[in-house]
Fold this protein.
Amino acid sequence: MDISVLRNSILFRDFDDTEISELLKALNAAEKKYKKGTMIFSSGEITDKLCFVTTGSVTVESNDMWGNRTILNLVSEGQFFAESYALLPDVPMLVDVCAAEDCGIIFMSMKSLEKLGDTVRSRLLMNLLTITTRKNLHLSSRSFHTAPRQVRGRIMAYLNTVSVQKHSREFDIPFDRQQLADYLNVERSVLSNELSKMQRDGLIQCRKNHFEII
Amino acid sequence: MDISVLRNSILFRDFDDTEISELLKALNAAEKKYKKGTMIFSSGEITDKLCFVTTGSVTVESNDMWGNRTILNLVSEGQFFAESYALLPDVPMLVDVCAAEDCGIIFMSMKSLEKLGDTVRSRLLMNLLTITTRKNLHLSSRSFHTAPRQVRGRIMAYLNTVSVQKHSREFDIPFDRQQLADYLNVERSVLSNELSKMQRDGLIQCRKNHFEII
DNA sequence: GAAAGTATGTTGTAATTACAACATTTCAGG
DNA sequence: CCTGAAATGTTGTAATTACAACATACTTTC
């Protein structure tokens, strides 16, 4: 397994290559490839696997019985997902996870945490804690993006966050139109329409997933 | 400080009374009382304090510039809040925290974690991990409650969750009408109206915050 | 138990969104 | 450089929601 991406991950912060290799073995790490659109986890499944995205990206989403999709999170290369379910192994997943692009995922068994020595284990726990707290902030920030009652408000809330993160008024977003609509919990056509209006009103410029706030 | 409530908290699981007392001292624990409606934290503040609700309850909420309130979470007696901000002490809070009722809060400094011995520290970290992962699930479940496009769908999604949690078709909810509206991201009057319709349609029965699903 | 204050229910209208249907643009393979 | 498939944009209408204004019910305090 290629550990170059893992070396820079939060999980293995302060671990050297030898330690990482040993840990991967202890955690039964295994990589799997997925084609765009494939479902990686379905709501109701139980897992103890911490998942790491080596290439591509996945969406964490809720698909209700009427076919509405809500994207809770987009997880890209170098990030983790399913950490909560991995650490609470009796809780069935509430979400689906889908390959947003062709992607590679490394699965690590958290059940195996117990087998680790005290020191290594506690260093790993600290890193896991960083992952889960950051994920928490991510989940809350989506709440801000969907808090405004109107579509324009939601778009602005989202674009502002991205702009702040990237330290620039001009940036790319990781979503296509349908994904952005599903993330902001609005109709795709209404989103497209509102983006057009916002350009006419001189608020933003956009082309595909490149945006500029004016 | 009265540690009887803390004894049963997730944070101190597997700690005995002596250990808890020592930990409270090490973490500079201090209790403070708040009147209903008081703001405990404001968006933008920075804190390293893990907060525990001894009595009453608080809401974690986002108040935007147009005066819209969105309740992300209601934290009741025996639960924690601000854990993400406490553990990522350079991140300013995105949310406000308000006393939903008269309440008591114990503040514990997470900066002081470093001072602890390895063993105690790692036991505490494991418990913190449980707190943050559970909080994660809580945050995602709100996303399901607000995912349906229509008010009735949101109400049903929420009531279903509560019903499952309480193992009963009949239960009390912790929200009043305004709070429930702010949690589900809908207008209070529209919520009241829809609840009436749902009763006429024979879907539910409700009086104040007591509900029955039929 | 009256008064004042707070919470909840009801209604109408204006504004917004959902949804469907179709037009246009973009992109990947042949 | 065609062609089909996918993504994005546009528009109109039906349905839903926001908002304000008011009515009713419930609580708390004196």
Q: What stands out?
A: The CA atoms of residues 83 and 183 of chain B lie 21 Å apart. Chain B has a mean pLDDT of 92.
